[in-house]
Design brief:
The chain has a domain at 230-341: Succinate dehydrogenase/fumarate reductase flavoprotein, catalytic domain (Flavocytochrome C3, Chain A, domain 1, Alpha-Beta Complex). Helix content is 36%, strand content 18%. The protein has helices at residues 13-22, 63-73, 80-99, 132-146, 211-218, 246-249, 276-288, 307-313, 315-324, 380-402, 410-429, 436-450, 457-474, 488-512, 530-533; strands at residues 2-9, 28-32, 48-49, 114-115, 125-126, 150-153, 155-163, 166-174, 180-190, 223-224, 229-236, 253-255, 298-301, 334-343, 346-348, 360-362, 367-368, 454-455, 521-522, 535-540, 547-552. The strands form 5 sheets. Strands 1, 2, 6, 7, 8, 9 and 16 form a 7-stranded mixed sheet that branches. Strands 17-15-10-20-21 form a 5-stranded mixed sheet. A 4-stranded antiparallel sheet has the order 11-14-13-12, covered by helices on one side.
Length: 565
Amino acid sequence: MQYHQVIVVGGGLAGLRAAIEASNATDVAVVSKVHPIRSHSGAAQGGINAAFGNHPEGKDDSPQKHAYDTVKGSDFLADQEAVLVFANMAVPCVSELEHWGAPFDRTEEGKIAQRPFGGAGFPRTCYSADKTGHVLLHTLFEQVVKRKITVYEEWQALALVVEDGICRGLVAMDRISGKIEGFRAEAVVFATGGAGRVYGRSTNAIIKTGSGMGIAYRAGVPLKDMEFIQFHPTSLVGTNILLTEGARGEGAYLVNRLGRRFMEDYSPNFMELAPRDIVSRSIQTEINEGRGFDDDSVHLDLRHLGAQKIMERLPGIRDICLHFAGLDPIKSPIPVQPGQHYTMGGIDCNQDCETPVAGFYAAGEASCVSIHGANRLGGNSLMETIVFGKIAGGKAAEFVTGKQKTGDGAPAVEAATEREQGRVEQLLAGEGLESPGKIRAELKDVMIGKVGIFREQRPMEEALDKVKELKDRYSRLGLSYKGRNYNLDLARTLELGCKLDLAEAITVGAIARKECRGSHYRLDYMTRDDQNWLNHTIYEYAPEGPRLSYRPVVPSIFPPEERKY
């Protein structure tokens, strides 16, 4: 059994920032199923929001205005006090990254450069070309190496250990050897990312299965707002690789088959820089009504920006198009379609990243503080990882250094380790005829097809029936490989159980929420209903399906208003 005072699960930006903060006062370790710089945070392209006011058009920007844009973008479902904490910490957190060596693009005066992003009143997105997440991930990993923080890479979390409402640690599997081991800790932080791979047509990496959310959920930690799923407007047709909002921030156009910049019909003031939920629905409407290309796409046109600007500001997009679409965006428009992109919901926690379980914290996309509410603004996710990663690591360290002894937790971790060993042995020994690959593929198809951008009661009920069928079939699995050494069939099958639980939660919550709000767009309930639905959805795990309850959203300084762009 391993022991560290604080264990952070997840090697992306939120996890590394939490570990760095906790390392100031405690012995901390990171458990990650990939080498940290292979985490999905590195795929974030366009930038990170902070109200510096460095752009000529952004001199009047402020944290208060950043907070307002965030709350409005959330369709007023965000927790406003948490948003104010987030917006006020943004500038000092980005300055800290700069001092650690993050190579941000610069203005002529040498300040951090900023670009416009969707739903923002001012250009406040700090960037490093279109590879911002990549450079920030390297910057933080350098700090982890400098501080000699222990990293268990290629270890997959299997279970969270909770005893009498207190977190005692976790159980994880070494993917290389197949060994299962207990990790005892005084505090645990989950920063395990989103659940994008529950859906087909996702911009997310294959590792983003939502397993951290699912593990916490099964351990009795509630989830929150899982019905809110963001679709990014511009993913590359065929692969659904992300093409950053930064392209539209630099002036790219969205054009339909008729050659029109159609966003003037949907958001005449913001055009291509309307919030993501609006742009995604607009693109899908153009496709559905026959004004798209090949019934599946519209064009993202960069050509008028010129070769120099594309190669300086958007080199990553050009590389992606050259290698994965066989086209050069300097010369040709890019076929794009909406793709599942972000999970607004997650592990229920407050603005201090505390969950209902003592000693258990959550940060980043795995968590739901909530600052994104029903729709996230581009550039806020990277900022969330840094702000709340820092908070989570600090609060975990405070908990450890200030707590009174409540038993060492070793027996609980040992018992959980035995249970997980038994579960894995049972999977390996199973001779069922059901294929985990087929279940995974059918799950992705039904979720993108029936619980997607546009939602209605009957298709969602059909999706729920299908998910329940898939959960039943999951109990009769047979693995194609029975070995222990780097058995990805086993690893992904373990995660598949979590994906099925999360798909069920998303669908049940979406059926129950009878209104339109942000990314949750119901064709059978076409208005936002603040009287009945200005509430967070809380999900508690039960074998028969999620139990839902609701928690009121209390506006503090920004009263709900009609959301216009």
